[in-house]
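so the lab meeting is tmrw and i was supposed to have these ready like two days ago... anyway. pasting both below. for each one the top line is the aa sequence and the line under it is the structure tokens. i havent really looked at them closely yet so no promises
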Amino acid sequence: MNRVIRIRRRLRAVAGYVRSAPGTYVWLLILFVTTVALHYMSPAFEREFLRQRSTNIHELSRDPVRVLISSAMWIDGGHWLPYAALYTVFHAQAERWLGTLRWLAVCVAAHVLATLISELTLLNAIREGAAPPRAVDTLDIGVSYALAGVVGVLTYRIAAPWRYLYLAAVLAIVLVPLVTGATFTDFGHFLSVLVGLACYPLVRGRGKAWDPKETLTALRG
């Protein structure tokens, strides 16, 4: 009986957590449905299908609004569970802290600005001969820019000095690929984090920053 009560309490806690971040979990549900749909497509059809919803130069020049929205509803690669974990750790925390509208503003700003700036940079590289002309149709789809923006804005959720350790780790994660590989996607992730950091005005008045030391003290009793 006690075990049943504990299970019910845990289920209520999970349900309460999901309800506290509705935007995050509605988005995650959409990604689950679209990921399942991709598994029923042939590899060739899937590639062409995603390319038409990609924020590459070709599609952006035809219908930018459509592809900016549609590209955020699909995951390239078909692995949903890692995103479920990342959304719970980062997106849900940001939405609970900022509120749905402010969280969504950070997501949209990071996704749109990082996409447009990175694709303009790629277009300039093509014109200068630094990238091949076929790069205008490069597959660029997914939710990583919005996620990186939220990771960036969460810097302000953490109290100093832990904030600076978190920021150093985030910058290392986005800068190492940028320095060693330097793809336009790596550049987009770096830009997304900067956009998230630039969203500081949205975090004002959102309560006391989280102090990991206080949490550890409370857990120790």
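ok protien two:
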Amino acid sequence: MHEDDRNRRDLRILVVDDNHDAAFSLSALLQLKGHQTSTAHNGLDAVRAATRVRYDAVVLDLGMPIMDGFQAAAVLGRLRPAPLLIAYSAWDDAETRRRTADLGFSAHLRKPVQLDVLEAALGLAREADSGRRRSHGGEP
């Protein structure tokens, strides 16, 4: 087994996008990488899902109906433990990036994104989880 494979821990990821095809496609790609995924199609459904299941990461579109990604991030960031938030949007201007940074997003990825770039951003969730397990006496 390759060293990277032994150190890699698959994640529980919520993919949120009002474009159903985009959400399901990204979810399927992440599943092929070994992750457990769920989808939601607006921020309110994302918040509801994240209060029922502890997600390691939420890949969140910003422009959605009912509750947008910014509003959802404000709520998701208050969960304990809070999931890693990754903005995944066509919106890539300086003001949008400032807003996502202020809301605690760990990464701001512009659609479409290469899977290896998303996997690198998800690496932060693995590091955070590994640190939590070590501090609580679990395996590294």
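from a quick look at the 2nd one: Residues 1-7, 133-140 have pLDDT under 50 and may be disordered. The two ends are 18 Å apart (CA to CA). will dig more after coffe
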